[in-house]
Every structure is written in structure tokens, then in C-alpha cells.
Amino acid sequence: MSQLDQLKKMTIVVADTGDFESLRQYSPTDSTTNPSLIYAASQQPQYKHLLDEAIQYGKKHTSHQMEHVLDKVFVNFGLEILKIVPGRVSTEVNARLSFDIEGSVEKARHLISLYEAAGIDRKRVLIKLATTWEGIRAAEMLEKEGIHCNMTLLFSLLQAIACAEAHATLISPFVGRILDWYKKSENVAGYAPAEDPGVKSVTTIFHYYKKFGYKTQIMGASFRNKEEILELAGCDLLTISPQFLEELKKSSDPVVLKLNPEEAKHADLKKIHIDEKTFRYLLNEDAMATEKLSEGIRNFAKDIGKLEGLIAKHL
Q1: Superfamily name and number for 3-312
Q2: Which residues are catalytic?
Q3: pLDDT tens, position by position, 169-199
């Protein structure tokens, strides 16, 4: 049995891609996208029809045409993905709304309305929001409406606790980006898999959630090597790029369960209450989380700008 098949027995495997052929090849349960993946996919000839259809949709509106096209192209990719995966797709709210509660809620409702107009139940869609204080508050409001949220750009236990207390459906801690920061900060080439700072961060979050009975799911994301993935075997979900899905598929080495909910209940952790003042102060105290959150928002916004440039030629 391949490592991928073994992993699927312990963890829900999610494909981190906008490429439909990869989805067919690796048979994940769910799929997640982001502006960077959609921008890359939109430039490929085989997906041009999805962009063209969104542009025609946008042209029917007399105002905010670009915004309508962007929303539709994200949903178009999501709809195609849902034809392949049996579970859910994650679709991201514009990163420029990361500090706008009302704007994020309105955008999420609109994206869901586009899915529902295409006959998709909202239970099959996760709305991705940046894990800012405002993003978390937007998620809290949306969850009450039955709009399920995937909290992205998450780099700390602090952010994870705030999401769980807001009853977000799912969080996506970015394992590899945490590793990137520590390698640069500590000027090291790497870490042993079990000592990887990203792996340790997700392990702590997993133990905290299971010990205190939170329902929010944990989906490790943004991996830099296969070893990070294997160290998190047993996590609720793992979203994996095609490169590492292929590596897992080619290997038949044994996969060992690393994260066990029953063992986590005995973890030596104290419950922390997070209000806005605590959140903002402790986030500021965590240089890595602060820098990677800000950088992630900037880069997603940058890729939305590139996608807008691609669209502008046709509007």
C-alpha cells in the first residue's frame, strides 16, 4: 500500500491545487484553492473557457465589472473541482478585505449565492478568510448563517484558539511558511522532522483542540517537504500539493500515526481565553505570526492584482 493510501486511512487528504487533472489522479476528498493557484491555472489554455465565461458574466453588469468577474472565476474553478471531489472546495474571500468584517461577510454571502445558483449546497463550500481579528469575527457571523469557513494564513496557537471560540469550521495552519521564517531567523538549513517548527505548532494546536473538546477541524497546509506531512499523520485533514501527493504515491514505506486524539486529551496545556485586546497584543508579541500573516495577505492581494491584469485585457 502506498504512503498516500496509508495516510488516507488516518487523515482526510485534500488537494492543494487548481489543476483538475491532479485531482483526478490522486482522488482527494476535498480541494482547496487560493488566488495564487487560480492565477496560475487561469493562464493555462485548458482552463481558458472558465475565465472567458466569467468575463462574459462580468460584462452583463454595468458597475464593478472586475469584481463580478473575479468572484465568478473563483466560483467557476470551484464548480469544476466539485465535479471531481466528493467533498468540499475552499474558495477565498479577496485578501484586500482581510481587515473588513462587513465586506468579508458580504463577499462570502455573494460567493455562496453563486454556488447555490449553480445548484451546489452551501455545505460543500468552505469560505476562506485570513485569520485576522476581523476575519475571525466575520467567520463567527457566517457560521451562524450556515456558511462554513476555512481560516487561512494561520501561524499560531493564539489564532487557532480565537477561531475555535468563534466556532469556525476549519483552520489551515501554514506549516511550511512557519519553517521558512525560522530557517531564515535562526540561519539554519533545516530541522529534523519532529523538531520542525511548523510541525510542532500544528501538533500543539491539535493537542489543545482535542484536550478541550473544540469541534473546529485542523487542516495542515503549505508543506515544504514530505516529512512534514508524515509527522502530522492523524491530523483531521492535510492539504497537499500535487508534487508531494506524487511522492507519497510512489513510496510504500510505513506511515506511523503521529497525532492521536485520545493521547492529546492528556496534554499538559492550560485553557487560554482570547478577547480582542489579548489577541492583538499576543499576535504583536509573536514576530513570526505577525510577519507571515502580513506577508501572506500582501502576496494574495498581489496575485489578485495579476489576475485583474489578465482580465482587464478582455473587459
Answers
A1: Aldolase class I (3.20.20.70)
A2: 128
A3: 999 999 999 999 999 999 999 999 999 999 9
